[in-house]
């Protein structure tokens, strides 16, 4: 009896142990993918660094105190300290590793959560990930091409007064990466509204009703997110988000109509809450047995 009780106890603990083991394996796979991506980022660190420096190094009228090179002719980027370039190289490599390995670790997260999801939720989550990646990338691209305008407005304040620009490389890289993150996440937010609609949390009617408030919030967010505060930068961020928001409203409207048609096709869909459906509760007729063998 003691052995039976111990076996039952082991059986109860086994699912938790398996979950922990699976979580460990998937975390190891995700970490390995990030390490491989970071190694690639370290190999191509100079190319990535040059691409990130281009928005500020290409600004005319800015006179920095850094070394003027072919890659940065205005000398706006300055490396402070003997280990600045080394630490910045590792930081860039880590960011590149996370981005390059994102399909792997996103899949590992989804694969760990998928067994606890319904079939419909699995389909929605995969569709969400598939649509979120290009939207996030689109936001990053918009930020990259808008960033020279942002930096020119910020840096020409000092240059117009006759001063020199001292822009620390580490601070600049952190700033541009944060801006890219803000733009990327902003482009994904309308997709979150579509996901809420498909789950049943948010209706398209509510999204249409409050569209004026949402548009105002988007432009206020654009004014806060773009540090220059100029109308061009604010509109460049807010306008695509507004377009994506109204696209999300359209997709949610189509989904609500499809859901309404399915409900209308269900039996008893037109009945009020106080009415009962017509159910045939009569027992089925019992056939008479011809002999004892038919019964057995």
UniProtKB/TrEMBL annotation:
The chain crosses the membrane at residues 27-44, 92-114, 126-155, 175-199, 211-228, 234-254. GO terms for cellular component: TAT protein transport complex. Its main location: membrane. It is a multi-pass membrane protein. Keywords: Cell membrane, Membrane, Protein transport, Translocation, Transmembrane, Transmembrane helix, Transport. The keyword Membrane applies. InterPro entries: TatC (IPR002033). It is found in: Cell membrane; Membrane. One of its GO terms (biological process) is intracellular protein transmembrane transport. GO terms for molecular function: proton motive force dependent protein transmembrane transporter activity. The Tat system comprises two distinct complexes: a TatABC complex, containing multiple copies of TatA, TatB and TatC subunits, and a separate TatA complex, containing only TatA subunits. Substrates initially bind to the TatABC complex, which probably triggers association of the separate TatA complex to form the active translocon. Belongs to the TatC family. PANTHER family: SEC-INDEPENDENT PROTEIN TRANSLOCASE PROTEIN TATC, SEC-INDEPENDENT PROTEIN TRANSLOCASE PROTEIN TATC, CHLOROPLASTIC-RELATED. Part of the twin-arginine translocation (Tat) system that transports large folded proteins containing a characteristic twin-arginine motif in their signal peptide across membranes. Together with TatB, TatC is part of a receptor directly interacting with Tat signal peptides. This is Sec-independent protein translocase protein TatC.
């Amino acid at each position: 009896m003691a052995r039976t009780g111990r076996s039952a106890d082991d059986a109860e603990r086994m699912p938790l142990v398996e979950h922990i083991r699976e979580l460990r394996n998937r975390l190891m796979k995700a970490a390995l993918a990030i390490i491989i991506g970071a190694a690639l980022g370290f190999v191509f660190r100079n190319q990535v660094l040059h691409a990130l420096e281009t928005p500020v190094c290409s600004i005319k009228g800015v006179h920095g105190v850094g070394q003027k090179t072919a890659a940065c002719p205005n000398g706006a980027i300055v490396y402070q300290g003997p280990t600045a370039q080394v630490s910045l190289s590792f930081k860039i490599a880590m960011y590149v590793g996370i981005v390059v390995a994102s399909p792997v670790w996103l899949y590992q997260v989804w694969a760990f959560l998928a067994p606890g999801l319904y079939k419909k939720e699995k389909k929605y989550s995969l569709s969400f990930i598939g649509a979120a990646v290009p939207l996030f990338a689109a936001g990053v691209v918009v930020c990259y091409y808008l960033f020279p305008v942002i930096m020119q407005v910020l840096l020409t304040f000092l240059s117009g007064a006759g001063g020199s620009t001292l822009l620390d490389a580490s601070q600049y890289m952190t700033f541009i990466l944060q801006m890219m993150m803000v733009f990327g996440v902003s482009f994904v937010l309308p997709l979150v509204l579509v996901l809420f609609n498909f789950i049943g949390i948010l209706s398209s009617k509510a999204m249409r009703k409050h569209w004026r408030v949402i548009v105002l919030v988007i432009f206020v967010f654009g004014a806060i997110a773009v540090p220059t505060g100029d109308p061009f930068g604010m509109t460049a961020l807010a306008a695509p988000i507004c377009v994506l928001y109204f696209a999300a409203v359209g997709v949610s409207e189509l989904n609500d109509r499809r859901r309404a048609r399915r409900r209308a096709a269900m039996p008893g869909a037109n009945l009020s809450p106080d009415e009962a459906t017509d159910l045939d509760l009569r027992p089925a007729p019992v056939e008479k047995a011809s002999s004892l063998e038919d019964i057995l």
